[in-house]
Every structure is written in structure tokens, then in C-alpha cells.
Amino acid sequence: MAAAALPAVAARLGRAVVAGPAAARLESLRALTGLFREAQPREMAEESIFQNLLEILMKASNEIERVYKESCESVDVDTCLLLIAECFRCLRNACVECAKNQHVMRSLGLIATSVHLIKVLHGAQVKQESLLTAFRCSLQFLGNIAAGNGDSQNSIWKCAFPDLFLTCLTYNDEKIVAYCCMVLFTCLNSERVRELLDPENLTVPLHVLKVYREELETEWSFLVVTDHLLKCPELVKALYAKLSNQERVTLLDLIMAKISEKNPVTNEEMIVFLRHADFLAGRFQEKCQAVLKLTSATGADDEEALVTIRLLDVLCEMTSNNGQLEHLQTLPGLLETAVDTLRLTHLAGKQAVNIFTATHAMTGQEEISHPAVGFKSHLIRLIGNLCYKNKENQDKVCQLDGIPLILDNCSIDDNNPFVNQWAVYAIRNLTEQNERNQELIARMEERGLADNSVLESMGLKIEKQDDKLILRSVRKNPT
């Protein structure tokens, strides 16, 4: 039925464009918009329909420019905006999964016309609802004409980058920001992501991160970052250098979301992850001691320390992945930094009462909300991961006197949930097929430097065989 009605509606629109009043054009447009919701009428659409739509858009655009440039009071702005919005709705519907219509519209110059009209709408002095609706519909059209169509994406990029994106990402309307992120996501590819490295273009991804951080629009801005920007390690470094500490935490959150995905990783993606690992490990090693600022009440909200905490979280997640773990295990200085930071925070907690002081005085109904809660647990987790089936790192922790340090962090600590479990895990990894480390712990227990009950809680037992102390596991290794 819809397909049969298309010729009559198209003819009516053509007559209205030539001689009919605005109301007749609007009525025909609405009918056409409705028809294009279905696939068959979309496929049957002739070029003349889109020529008529282009003519309406150009005329309405000229009228609006006259109003805002010449203060022309004879123009009915509201009617112009209604026509623009309906034209874009019609175009938006007509190019859904229809490469033929996408090609015709692009050949007619509708992309360039739309980009120009967006600039006109942005330049308007008022923010009336009819203008916002027209603005939103124009971006929806660009998103649809670009979907699955590389030629349209190229055309939009050529016409719109970077000005249109900067205009829309900073616009005071959440839907316009959302639709802009959609268009950006659709048009980006690996080559265009590298264009963002240009200092003049870096503002675009910076605004995307701001959009995500301020929760103006999370779905499309999230996808722009995780599916495009994070695929370019050079861009991540450039962005990180420009961000405030709060914004760095947001970027690290997005990196965490990406590396936590359970999807299979290609070799190319793994190479990217490893480059991120190098960069983030370097930042952690540079800034790890910033977390000590949290020992004082005045430094409780120190933003640099919050970045350090989040860097550690990301590194823990990365070392939970076998491919990334093997790479991080070989990074110079990372293991030493983790052990040294654990020692410094542990000492700070013993010298004065602060967030690094072990406590188990809570009733179980209280909850600590301090950002450094769990920091020592995560350090021990990182150390344990870095020592997994890696004798060189096992020996290195022993040389750094890290084993007594970990054993000293085995008690229940409300400031560090699960610290006992992570300590058990770390000691197991440190002693697996490592007789030297096993003997060290056994001698510590014999001299009273290691609590046997703590060792038993870890599933470890000291035995004497032929005048030699042996550390044995009395519990199956966790799967």
C-alpha cells in the first residue's frame, strides 16, 4: 500500500514546491516521511523527489540567513524551521539501509547543503525548540547517510571536519551532542583517527572525553573512545598530556572498560594493548609516590594520587590477561616500583594512623569510601601477577625483601578488602617451583618471624626433612 501511494505523494510534493503554499509542502513532506519508514518505497524513490527536498532546504536556508543577517521581519521563521526539520526527517528515513538513495543524495550535494545549513542554525541568536529540532534532524540525516557508506563518510569528513564536530560537541543541547558523537563514530577510521594527532585537531577528541565525563551523552562518546581513539597509542599519549588529573581518571576508566572486554583479541589489538601497557606502566612508575599524599587529611582529595590509584587498577587488570602479563613481567622497574610502593605505604600506615593503617574495628555495617581503600591489596595483587610462573621475578621480590613485607600484610584489614586472599595468591606464586623462596619462608617461621597460623591460613605447612625445612602446600591450588 505504501509503495503504491509513493507516486501520488511525490507528484503532490513536486506541485507544492513549484507553486503551493508552505502548508501544502509541509503536508506532502510529512506524508513522504511516513512512506519512507518502509523499505519498498525507499527503493522506489526517484531522484526528482530528492531534488525537490534539496530545493526546499536551500530556499528555507536562504530565508533563515536573511532573518539573522538582515533582520528581515517578513520571513516566517517557524514555518521555515518546520520545513527544514521535516525535510531532514524525510531524507533520514529515505537513506536507511538504502545505498541507492545515499548515492543520489550525495551526488545532488545534500551533504554539503546540510553542513552549510547546520552552520546557519548554529549562528542563530535564538534557541527555540523548532530550531533545535531542525538541528537534531540534520545530524540524524548525516548519521544515516554515512552508515555503511564509505563515500558518504568521506564527503562528510571533507565538508565537516573539524569545524562541524567542534560546533556540535560544545552545543548546549544533549541530543545535538549525542547525534554529533554518532556521526563522528560512523565517519572515523584508522586513518582519520591519526588526523586527530594534529595539534589543531586534538580539540575534537578532548571534547569527546569531556562529553563522556560530564555524562551529557555516554553511549556514542564511549564508543568513539573505546572503538576508535584507543586504537591509536600515540593519540592516547597526546591526549593524556593535555588532560587534567580528573580527566585522566576518566580516560583510564575507559581504558579499563576496553581491556576488560571478554571478546577475542586479534594480534593487531594485542600490539596496541601492549603499547598502552608500556605507557601506563611508565606513568605509574613516575607518579606512584603521589599516593602517599593521602596520608594527611589535607591531601585526602589529591587528584594526582587518584590517577596513581587508577593506574594501578588498570595494570592489575592488564596483568590478569596472559598476553599482556608476559609483556609486563619483562618491563624494567615495574616490579621494583610495586614492591617499593607497598613498603612505603605499609610504613606510612605504621608510623601514624591513616588510610594505610591496618584496621579491623568496623562492625561490618560501616563502609569506608576513601579512594585509597584497597590500594595495598592491589599492589600485592600486581606483585603476585608479575611473579606468576616467572622465576626471575620471584627471585627479584626475594632480593627486595618483598616476601616478609607481603607476609606482614596478611591480617584482616578493613582498609584493604581481600588483602589476605591476595597475599595468599602472591605467596603461592612466589614459592611455586622456587625452593629458595620456600626455604626463606620456612626459616622465617623457625625464627618466629613468620606466624605459623598465618601460613596455615594460606594453606602452607612447614615440615622438616633430613634437617632441612620444607614449605609444603596442604591445599589444592585454586583453579
Q: Any low-confidence stretches, pLDDT <50, length ≥5? A: none
- How many helical elements? 26
Largest sheet: 2 strands, antiparallel
In total, the number of strands is 2
State mean pLDDT (0 to 100 scale): 89
Summary, kept brief:
With 479 residues, this protein is mainly α. It has helices spanning 2-18, 22-35, 39-44, 47-70, 77-94, 99-108, 110-123, 129-146, 150-160, 163-169, 174-187, 190-195, 203-213, 219-227, 233-242, 245-259, 267-287, 303-318, 322-328, 334-351, 375-386, 391-399, 402-407, 419-431, 435-446, 452-457, and strands at 460-465, 468-473. The mean pLDDT is 89.
Folded structure, characterized:
By secondary structure, this protein is an all-alpha fold. It is built from 26 helices and 2 strands. It has helices at residues 2-18, 22-35, 39-44, 47-70, 77-94, 99-108, 110-123, 129-146, 150-160, 163-169, 174-187, 190-195, 203-213, 219-227, 233-242, 245-259, 267-287, 303-318, 322-328, 334-351, 375-386, 391-399, 402-407, 419-431, 435-446, 452-457; strands spanning 460-465, 468-473. It has a two-stranded antiparallel sheet. The longest helix has 24 residues, at 47-70. The radius of gyration is 31 Å and the shape is elongated. It starts with a helix and ends in a 6-residue tail after the last strand.
